[in-house]
Structure formats: structure tokens, C-alpha cells
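Schema walk-through. Below, the input block comes first and the output block second. Nothing else is stored per chain. Lengths vary across the set, and this one has 41 residues.
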Amino acid sequence: MSVVFGSLVILLVLLEEIYLVTTYGMKLIYKFKQQNKLDMV
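--- output ---
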């Protein structure tokens, strides 16, 4: 039972890490796109 619980915790931590990285990446891409739009004008 403890093994299953441990693997679930690891899975949750991994999902949280992936979520944080993707949201951070999206913010960076958004900022980059906004800067490009300003440069074009």
C-alpha cells in the first residue's frame, strides 16, 4: 500500500512541475510575441 501511495505522490509532484514549466513557458512566449508586435510597428 505504501508503494502505491509513494508512486502517487511522485506522480503528483511531476504533474505539478510540468504544469509550472508549461505555464512559465507560455508566459515567456506571450511576452516574446508582444515584444515582436511592438518591434514591427
